[in-house]
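Internal ticket - ligand job 355, dinuclear copper ion:
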Amino acid sequence: MTRTHASRIRRTLASPLLLVWLAVLAVESTLAAAAPGDPALIPSIFRPESTPAHSIHELSMLVLAITGIIFAVVFGLIVYALVRYRRRPDDDGGEPAQVYGSTQVEIAWTVTPVLIVVVLSLTGARAIDRIQNTPRPAASLDVTAVGHQWWWEFRYPSLGIVTANELHVPVSDPANPTPTFLKLLSADVVHSFWVPRLAGKMDLIPNRVNEMWIAPEKPGLYLGQCAEYCGTQHAKMLLRVYVHARDDFDRWAGEQRQAGAQSQNVAEGRRIFETTSCISCHAVGGTVGTGTFGPDLTHLMSRETLGSGAAPNTPENLRTWIESPEHAKPGSLMPAMNLTRRELDELVAYLETLR
Ligand code: CUA
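stdout (structure tokens):
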């Protein structure tokens, strides 16, 4: 093979791989635009930060490489055939030599794909086994996640904590792992828990318990999203996983375990909360509100977002949210209570004390 020949072939093979790479970059930069500022917030499977996510990433890269090579070979052969056998002015218009059957070729293009499929299924099975059958260390944390239309409920049975939309877990040192095991349930329809940098997707199915685990290696915030269409506000069923150093996690858990704040200055707001239908859906520790249809509000102000990541948790947004949930999340199952302006102010002032 001459040198020009070899470099031409290399160019032909390189261009499809380049296309795949450019596609990956395009997806990444689109995600970057969606989460401006901090690249660590991009929910990308290409930057895993937790044991199951590493296994999935390794497998994806292998699959991407193999399928990329297949793509390059097929694409290269197509281009070669198009160029080599294109119509030329001096064609005599006759048919080319016809070739019928070749045992060698038949065997080659049967055996090669079978081998590829066998390799892919075995590596896939190994990755699934590594994730599903990992022994569970004694130091692991249990969390029950319940999918609701359209928010996440998180319960820590061993800690007596109930919170919503923002999952807090301790960091897991690979040398001394403290993973978090999630029990996934649904209160209504099928949802799917997906935080790409931490683990694969797992559905939350009514009347069924699914399980998954994460072992994040670096403290920080990891974003995710409900990954199964679950109704009008599926897109605003966002996930935020806060990974803390052990001390910070223990501090957070301690604060969450405390009884709710009861400030006398906001007695009127509390009265409005307790005498409106807020309490049919929401709980606040130490009040008559014990509803479980909506998020527990005992420590509402410890959360950074409202409406499952729909808006930052500021007093203005909280006010708008209560005044008209339809505005921030059309189709939201929370009704507007038709409170007067003064009642709204009092209620927001009360909720602002729930730290
Ligand atoms: Cu819940 Cu989509």
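Auto-summary: The mean pLDDT is 89. The CA atoms of residues 53 and 199 lie 4 Å apart.
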